[in-house]
Write a structure and sequence with these properties.
Shape: globular
Helix content: 10-25%
Protein name: CTLH domain-containing protein
Number of strands: 55
Number of helices: 12
InterPro entries: CTLH_C, LisH, Topless_fam, Topless_Znf, TPL_SMU1_LisH-like, TPR1-like_2nd, WD40/YVTN_repeat-like_dom_sf, WD40_repeat_CS
Distance between the termini: 41 Å
GO biological process, one term: shoot system development
Keywords: Repeat, WD repeat
């Protein structure tokens, strides 16, 4: 429906309201789905007209559209059920239970059983969660508050809660203007025309030569009535765009400020009365494995179109909303491979380690800060110390007199905390005297001074990085009882938080539901929480131990833990209930008197570890009893410092002899062995070391080799953000490794690794009970938990890795087989095709940033699918021309670039169903598209072997060039060329069957190029960056997979097809 037609509906709604057609008004609201009348909805809820409430809601959303919608319908049906029980109408209650509430059983069977058990109670208020249930009127009012917040936050109601600001009787005015215009066109207009019908155009019958009076003083429809306009349907008037704010930190917040996006309770469904609307705001990011049907992408913006009309995609803020309470497995039988029993490395630091941190991407890089102010950088894989720096004030003259005086009085300085930034390009050091130093990291042994900040009076006790307002910041706390926030580029101070009455010991920045906040702990045991404003703390709670306490979230951000030691040596490790600001569970196993402040860490959303009693103690997060202890062959201090790497495969532990032991589980041992196999000749010096990326070469096979998901023996195939050349800009960690020139470094002796046998790798074949066609496209989802494929019969297939004991993260791995997944409806995502011959079509698709949508085409119309329900949201752009490549704009999901087989690129706005621009410059079909959000350009490639760069502001072509095809190389008639941006968003990978090249996109000049040396070498069929852009994986027509260093395009590893493909499969990859 066009925008004018939509506006006409609003005019009709206003007219019907003015004419008092009340039932018709609400029927049109519901059928059109354009305006949700909140006042009418409130009245129906308060009056208990449940059938009408659900019917009216049905015009805007369905139960399974998204999690907000499901929660809305659940609350309504729960209230209806409780009212039947309150009236002792058992038969009615059973009917509601079976007809209305049973639909939720598939998502939370335990909750459904508990609701069913209410039938056995004489008074359901005997249930503890319902003990505060009042009378029917008050219960409906409380529920209505919750429903309004859910509706306001539900993306499906966006732009539907505000009626347009119209003048009274706008439709009558337009008709009057039209009739005046018609009258002025009469050949013989009468001075006082008699208008008797609107069904035909007006025309004066008898000529008298007089002109019609002006509409200003003689309206043809008589005087226009002036009743109250449609927006003022009730006392509430039009719905206000600024809803009442909800406490952003749930029960932790005591005086929340106004926020633009309400943090509503879209979380766990339960049947307790929501006396505190903010108390249901705990939303784990990762759904429970017990609820497999709910654990695919958050459907915050999901919308299934009721009719073929333009559908807008809301911004995917990836709110961590979860419908059901998360349950965790209680089994405590763990494979020994899970535990870090093996001492894989012993490193001699030279002074006592005080703080350690592994690089977030290159996970064998370990930072160490010591008790004498030294910092060290180790490559655990090669056992080499890449960097050592002694403490030194960079610019003493710029420091405060207090710091200069303190250093003169006592020059000894200790590192209190050392930590990497989230992308690993910076790291920060907090010292025991006033200052923090920020270094930039450029790979290998290259660290450079970035910022020195005289941050606090006294010691700086902790440092952290955060991204408030999408800007990297540094957070510090110190002995001066303050927390400060600094801009990470310039060091400008942005906030100072005051309110603690003792030195601040630690900070823990986090975000939830698009709200950024900071927890802080002080030496008096107080915990406070702060938003990035100047309104003071929102929390004032006591930490167990009342002294040195640190806080940390689980890897998925869903669970909050703290560990503290009192002045008497009593240690407390607890999990917090964020909704209530109370301790949820306390872990047992500490000695009565710890001999130091206990440090702790979390790993893999599963385990907690703490250093105590000369050992490392391990707990299952879901059981308070001590699970196991690790002695690490002895030599540990009473309270050793500990730190896991991001994947949980390595654990660094401090030792009494001023060293570090690196413990590894089975995956970590395999990782280190692989790095040893790839290492340089032992004769090279430390200064010549090049940092190794974490990604094992074998992980390429899953992305490059069609249906074979081959991975390393470590089993970790897909990190949290995956890169693939599918036209989709991925939500990757913003790592910016250098594109360096290594070609002239002759001192490095590379060993080419060849994988020739099945014993050298671990591979999986993806099971498929649906398709009979070949795979045309294959990618990892952005979250790294699934593989999406598009078959040549236009059907999409989705394999998801289960979350279980063997795979606690739920990420892609070769240790556990993924399962072919479908929604409960059993429908398939099937593209539109032409002439029933999809095998001959060009297949393409692109995933949106948080995996909620997939845009796809197979020669016919382009389809937009909801990835959680598999429903088709809309189709558009019927051929010809047909789409050959798709890419989402990185800043706006509603803007997509569509490459066509007629060589054009169409920039299309999904929300308004309009082509914004058509780009011409290629001479053959488009085969690749990639956006850069740093350069603000779109790079395109075509079958004409040409690359073009387009400015995304005005869509003008900035530059173009043709690839240089090596002489003597046979090529196909259609030269498919693909493009993909490096994570620095400035360099671009260009792939052609004759070559792989890295281009500087700003100049469109090649930086590196790799053509196969032999003219008889098989053509290159595909290539892609690893998730950290350190490696390039390439597949060839004979099914060989090669791994290259992205910085030099040096071949590092070759995987032969016999190592991962069964003998009965043809060695052929497209």
């Amino acid at each position: 429906m066009s925008s004018l037609s939509r506006e006409l509906v609003f005019l009709i709604l206003q007219f019907l309201d003015e004419e008092k057609f009340k039932e018709t008004v609400h029927k049109l609201e519901q059928e059109s789905g354009f305006y949700f009348n909140m006042k009418y909805f409130e009245d129906e809820v308060i009056n208990g007209n449940w059938d009408e409430v659900e019917r009216y809601l049905g015009g805007f959303t369905k139960v399974d559209d998204n999690r907000y919608s499901m929660k809305i319908f659940f609350e309504i049906r729960k209230q209806k059920y409780l009212e039947a029980l309150d009236k002792h109408d058992r038969s009615k209650a059973v009917e509601i239970l079976v007809k209305d509430l049973k639909v939720f059983a598939s998502f939370n069977e335990e909750l459904f059983k508990e609701i069913t058990q209410l039938l056995t109670l004489e008074n359901f208020r005997e249930n503890e969660q319902l003990s505060k249930y009042g009378d029917t009127k008050s219960a409906r009012a409380i529920m209505l508050v919750e429903l309004k917040k859910l509706i306001e936050a539900n993306p499906l109601f966006r732009d539907k809660l505000q009626f347009p600001n119209l003048k009274s009787s706008r439709l009558r005015t337009l008709i009057n203007q039209s009739l005046n215009w018609q009258h002025q066109l009469c050949k013989n207009p009468r001075p006082n025309p008699d208008i008797k019908t609107l069904f035909v155009d007006h025309s004066c019958g008898q000529p008298n030569g007089a002109r019609a009076p002006s509409p200003a003083n003689n309206p043809l429809l008589g005087s226009i009535p002036k009743p109250g306009g449609f927006p003022q349907l009730g006392a509430h008037g039009p719905f206000q765009p600024a809803p009442t704010p909800v406490a952003p930190l749930a029960g932790w917040m005591s005086n929340p400020p106004a926020v633009t996006h309400p943090a509503v309770s879209g979380g766990a469904i339960g049947f307790g009365t929501p006396t505190n609307p903010a108390a249901m705001l705990k939303h784990p990011r990762t759904p429970s494995a017990a609820n497999p049907s709910m654990d695919y992408p958050s459907g915050d913006s999901d919308h299934v179109s009721k009719r073929p009309r333009p559908v807008g995609l809301s911004e995917e803020v990836n709110l961590p909303v979860n419908m059901m309470p998360v349950t965790y497995p209680q089994s405590h039988s763990y494979p020994q491979d899970d535990f870090h029993k093996a001492v894989a490395r012993t490193l001699s630091q030279g002074s006592a380690p005080m703080s350690m941190d592994f690089h977030p991407v290159q996970q064998t890089l370990l930072l160490v800060g010591t008790n004498v102010g030294d910092i060290g950088l180790w490559d655990v894989g090669t056992k080499e110390r890449l960097v050592v720096r002694n403490f030194k004030v960079w610019e003493l003259g710029k420091c405060s007199m207090a710091l200069q005086a303190a250093l003169v009085k006592d020059p000894t300085v200790s590192v209190n905390r050392i930590i990497w930034s989230p992308d690993g390009t910076l790291f920060g050091v907090a010292y025991s005297r006033h200052i923090v130093q920020i270094y930039s990291y450029h790979g290998g042994d290259d660290i450079r001074q970035h910022l020195e900040i005289d941050a606090h009076v006294g010691g700086v006790n902790d440092i952290a990085f955060a991204h408030p307002n999408k800007q990297l910041c540094i957070i510090t706390c110190g002995d001066d009882k303050t927390i400060k926030v600094w801009e990470a580029t310039s060091g400008t101070k942005q906030f100072t938080f005051e309110g603690h009455e003792a030195p601040v010991y630690s900070v823990c920045p986090h975000y939830k539901e698009n709200i950024q906040f900071i927890f802080s702990t002080a030496l008096d045991g107080k915990i406070k929480a702060w938003l990035y404003d100047n309104l003071g703390s929102r929390v004032d709670y006591d930490a167990p131990g009342h002294w040195c306490t640190t806080m940390a979230y689980s890897a998925d951000g869903s669970r909050l833990f703290s560990c503290g030691t009192s002045k008497d040596g009593e240690s407390h490790l607890v999990e917090w209930n964020e909704s209530e600001g109370a301790v949820k569970r306390t872990y047992q196993g500490f000695r009565k008197r710890s001999m130091g402040v206990v440090q702790f860490d979390t790993t893999r959303n599963r385990f907690l570890a703490a250093g105590d009693e000369f050992v490392i103690k391990i707990w299952d997060m879901d059981n308070t009893s001590l699970l196991t202890t690790i002695e690490a062959d002895g030599g540990l201090p009473a309270s050793p410092r500990i730190r896991f790497n991001k994947e949980g495969t390595l654990l660094a532990v401090s030792t009494v002899d001023n060293g570090i032991k690196v413990l590894a589980n089975a995956d970590g041992v395999r990782l280190l062995r692989t790095l040893e196999n790839r290492s340089f000749d032992a004769s090279r010096s430390a200064s010549e070391t090049v940092t190794k990326p974490l990604i094992n070469p074998l992980t390429a096979a899953a992305a490059a080799a069609a249906a074979a998901a081959a991975a390393t023996s470590s089993g970790t195939a897909a990190p949290s953000s995956i890169t693939a050349m599918n036209g989709d800009n991925r939500s990757m960690v913003d790592v910016k490794p250098r594109i360096a020139d290594e070609s002239m470094d002759k001192s490095k002796v590379w060993k080419l690794m060849e994988i020739t046998d099945t014993a050298q790798c671990r591979s999986l074949k993806l099971g498929d009970s649906i398709r009979t066609a070949k795979i045309s496209r294959l990618i990892y989802t952005n979250s790294g938990v699934a593989i999406l494929a598009l078959a040549s019969n236009a059907v999409h297939l989705l394999w998801k890795w289960p979350r279980n004991e063997r795979n606690s993260t739920g990420k892609a791995t070769a240790s556990v087989s993924p399962q072919l997944w479908q929604p409960p409806s059993g429908i398939l995502m099937t593209n539109d095709t032409i002439d029933n011959s999809p095998d001959e079509a060009v297949h393409c698709f692109a995933l949106s940033k948080n995996d909620s949508y997939v845009m796809s085409a197979s020669g016919g119309k382009i389809s937009l699918f909801n990835m959680m329900t598999f429903k088709t949201m809309t189709t558009f752009m019927p051929p010809p021309p047909a789409a050959t490549f798709l890419a989402f704009h990185p800043q706006d999901n509603n803007i997509i670039a569509i490459g066509m087989d007629d060589s054009t690129i169409q920039i299309y706005n999904v929300r308004i169903d309009e082509v914004k621009s058509k780009l011409r410059g290629h001479s053959k079909k488009i085969t690749g598209l990639a956006f850069s959000n740093v350069l603000n350009v779109l790079v395109s490639s075509g079958a004409d072997a040409q690359i073009c760069v387009w400015n995304t502001d005005g869509w003008e072509r900035q530059r173009s060039r043709f690839l240089q095809i090596p002489s003597g190389r046979p090529t196909s008639n259609i030269l498919d060329t693909r493009v993909q941006f490096h994570q620095d968003q400035q360099h671009c990978l260009v792939v052609h069957e004759t070559q792989i090249a890295i281009y500087d996109a700003s100049k469109l000049e090649p930086v590196k190029q790799w053509p196969p040396r032999e003219t008889s070498a098989p053509p290159i069929t595909h290539a892609t960056f690893s998730c950290d852009s350190q490696l390039i994986y390439a597949s060839f027509l004979d099914a060989t997979v090669c791994i290259f260093s992205a910085s030099s395009l040096r071949l590092q590893c070759r995987i032969l097809p016999a190592s991962y493909l069964p003998q009965n499969i043809r060695y052929f990859i497209r």
